[in-house]
Design goal:
Layout: E1 3-15, E2 26-42, E3 47-51, E4 58-60, H1 74-86, E5 93-98, H2 112-127, H3 134-149, H4 155-162, E6 165-169, E7 173-177, E8 182-187, H5 194-197, H6 204-223, H7 226-243, H8 251-261, E9 266-271, E10 278-283, H9 289-298, E11 302-305
Parallel strand pairs: 3-5
Antiparallel strand pairs: 1-2, 2-5, 2-6, 3-4, 6-7, 8-10, 8-11, 9-10
C-alpha cells in the first residue's frame, strides 16, 4: 500500500493583494514553510476524507462521484472534481489533511484554503501518477479555489503551488523572484476573511498606482536595494490605508508598523486583507530582532522567523 505525503507551504502577500484581483493586476507573493500536510493512500470500498481540525470525517465513492461545492469539505471535493475533469479517476483513496494554520476565527491568514486545493491536486497527481505539469496543477487548483470562494486572483494559489517568492500577473504570468532579506511574520491573533473585503469598489487610480508600486518594489528586490525596497513598500502601505474602509489598520497593526518601520534595517507591511491577521517584515540586519519580539509580545502579538518555501517544478 503506497502512501504519499505532500508538504504544503502557506503564503503572505508582499504587495498588490487588492489590485491583483482584476485581470492583469500585479502582486508580489511569497510562500512560507508551514506544517500543512496532505497524505493519501489506497482505500478499499469507499473514499474517506479526514483532518486534525474540527471537521467530521467524510466518505464518498469515486465510482459514483457527485460534485460538492458546499459544506466543510467543499474545497477538497471541488479540487477532486476538477482533476476528474482532466483525467479518469476510479480508485478509492483515503486523504488526510494535517494543519496548524487554524480554522474559522482561529485562522492564521497563511492561505489555508489555497493550501487545501494545492495539496489535494498535488496529492492526486502523485497517487494516480497523472504526470500533470506544474502549470496544469496551478490551473486546476486555482479554478477550484476561485469557484468555491467566488472571488480572488489565484495569487495565493500561485505562490503555494510554485513555491519560493513570485511576481504574479493575474491569469497570465508567474515569475520567480529571489528576496535577499530575512522574512518574519507578526501575528496579531485577529482573524480576517479575505473574501468579505474584496467586494469594495476601488478607483482606477488605485489599481494603476498599485501596479506601479509592485514593479518598483520588484526592481528594488532585483537591485538588492533595501532602502528603496522599504520606501516603496511603505508607499504601498499608505496607498492601501488611504483607500481601504475603516478598520483596515487595527490598533495592533498600527502599533506594530510604527515600531517596525522606525528601525532603518526593518521594513514591514500589513499582509493580505488587513483588519487583523499578519504583518510581513523583512530584515536587512537582525541584531535587534529579539528585542523587537519582546516588545511585540508585550502588546499581545507574536513575532516568528519565516522560511520561504522551496521552489517547485
Amino acid at each position: 500500500m503506497n502512501t504519499y505525503k505532500i508538504d504544503v507551504p502557506g503564503k503572505l502577500f508582499i504587495a498588490g493583494e487588492y489590485a491583483v484581483t482584476r485581470p492583469g493586476g500585479l502582486a508580489l507573493v511569497t510562500s512560507l514553510e508551514s506544517d500543512f500536510q496532505v497524505s493519501i493512500t489506497t482505500a478499499t470500498e469507499v473514499s474517506l476524507l479526514r483532518t486534525n481540525v474540527d471537521i467530521p470525517d467524510y466518505t464518498f465513492s469515486m465510482k459514483n462521484f457527485k460534485p460538492e461545492r458546499t459544506g466543510p469539505w467543499n474545497f477538497v471535493m471541488t479540487a477532486i472534481e476538477y482533476v476528474r475533469k482532466e483525467v479518469k479517476l476510479n480508485e478509492e483513496f483515503e486523504l488526510e489533511i494535517k494543519s496548524g494554520l487554524g480554522l474559522g476565527k482561529d485562522k492564521k491568514g497563511y492561505g489555508s484554503s489555497a493550501c487545501v486545493v494545492v495539496g489535494v491536486v498535488n496529492a492526486l497527481n502523485e497517487f494516480f501518477r497523472l504526470n500533470l505539469s506544474l502549470e496544469q496543477r496551478f490551473r486546476l487548483a486555482g479554478q477550484a479555489h476561485y469557484d468555491v470562494q467566488g472571488s480572488g486572483s489565484r495569487g495565493d494559489v500561485a505562490a503555494i503551488m510554485y513555491g519560493g517568492s513570485i511576481f504574479y500577473e493575474n491569469h497570465q504570468r508567474v515569475f520567480p523572484i529571489n528576496i535577499p532579506w530575512q522574512p518574519y511574520v507578526v501575528q496579531t491573533n485577529q482573524s480576517s476573511k479575505t473574501g468579505e473585503k474584496l467586494k469594495q469598489k476601488w478607483p482606477k487610480e488605485f489599481f494603476e498606482k498599485s501596479d506601479e508600486l509592485v514593479i518598483e518594489i520588484s526592481t528594488a528586490i532585483d537591485m538588492q536595494d533595501f532602502a528603496l525596497f522599504k520606501e516603496k513598500l511603505l508607499e504601498n502601505q499608505i496607498l492601501l490605508i488611504n483607500n481601504q474602509t475603516k478598520g483596515y489598520m487595527t490598533d495592533q497593526l498600527a502599533l506594530a508598523l510604527n515600531i517596525i518601520n522606525s528601525q532603518p534595517e526593518l521594513a514591514g507591511k500589513i499582509s493580505g486583507a488587513g483588519f487583523g491577521e499578519n504583518i510581513i517584515l523583512f530584515a536587512e540586519h537582525e541584531e535587534n530582532i529579539a528585542e523587537l519580539g519582546a516588545v511585540l509580545e508585550a502588546e499581545g502579538m507574536k513575532l516568528e522567523k519565516a522560511r520561504i518555501g522551496k521552489i517547485n517544478e
